[in-house]
Amino acid sequence: MAAIFADPRLKATSNNGHGVCIEEIEGLIRVYKNGQVERPPAIPIVPCNVTLNGQVTARDVFINKYINLWARVYVPSCPAGNLPVLVYFHGGGFCVGSAAWSCYHEFLASLAYKAGCVIMSINYLLAPENRLPAAYEDGLNSLMWLKQQILSGSSEHKWWMNQCNFSSLFLAGDSAGANIAYNVSTRVAIDNAVIKPLCVKGIILIQPFFGGESRTVSEKHSTQPANSALTVSASDAYWRLSLPVGTNRDHPWCNPLANATAGLQELRLPSVMVCVSELDILKDRDLEFSKALAGAGKKVETVVYKGVGHAFQILHNSQYSQIRIQEMMSHLKAFMNR
């Protein structure tokens, strides 16, 4: 199919009498009392064939064209076949972002090439128009779509599916996308048979976006640079816009540890990798989450990236970004090839 890069969710609109703005995250989203939502074009939208340097082939595929659910698929240009598959969810507080954002396109194309994997980057529905659990449902429906393509022997998708080892599938994402990957994995864990022949071998959570009513030390005292990708006030706004109306930040989708950790022991999760940024306001919360998973008997690998903050791997907003990005890609490759 043709490239899907004119993402209507991210189209900027002017205030044509929309009235009072009730929520705003500067430069990213404005929500008006009448329900109108504006998303200024903060990051360029790019087609799938932009600047791949012959290393990766990328195409856009529809999952459900009626709701504009689609994915951007990346395949190394000289594939060896039998490659692990990474189903990836972008970040953006559930409210902004796109699989066609240039920063994700560059990061995932590079990751597919350097880690030797096929990546399916999901363009899920955004809040507040589609509050949680809409993004989780999009994630699960994307897996079901993938299952159906395998079982039907889809000729349309052979160009990439023939390179895949679907028994080595990983759910991954950064920030809100990591939250989605985790919550999709908990749904799959209830009945793994529902997605067969797919088999989730691992979960990769990059700076997972969790929250809570009580502040952590890093949320209260972490000094954020002017170009920080996530502040406490922005985090709070994202949760107000994405959680079900009437709930707070101790809702389990926001705070999976709010009601103790007993439920974690019952989850049949595969191996989990948690990537934490040292300067991220989420650092303490992410480390606490990793500790709770390990305490519940899950196999967890935690990596802390020094000297960088939230979303460094896509925003390159630190002098250490390039070094840490290469470290991250090496860690992800090793995790997927065990």
UniProtKB/TrEMBL annotation:
Pfam families, per this entry? Abhydrolase_3
Q: Which Gene3D superfamilies match?
A: alpha/beta hydrolase
Question: Which GO molecular function entries does the Swiss-Prot or TrEMBL record give?
Answer: hydrolase activity
Taxonomy, superkingdom: Eukaryota
**Which InterPro entries does the record cross-reference, listed alphabetically?**
AB_hydrolase_3 (IPR013094), AB_hydrolase_fold (IPR029058), Carboxylest/Gibb_receptor (IPR050466), Lipase_GDXG_put_SER_AS (IPR033140)
Domain Alpha/beta hydrolase fold-3, which positions?
86-313
Active site (UniProt):
175
Q: Which family does it belong to?
A: Belongs to the 'GDXG' lipolytic enzyme family.
| PANTHER family per UniProt | ARYLACETAMIDE DEACETYLASE (PTHR23024), CARBOXYLESTERASE 17-RELATED (PTHR23024:SF589)
Kindly provide the name given to this protein in its UniProt entry.
Alpha/beta hydrolase fold-3 domain-containing protein
Gene source species: Citrus sinensis
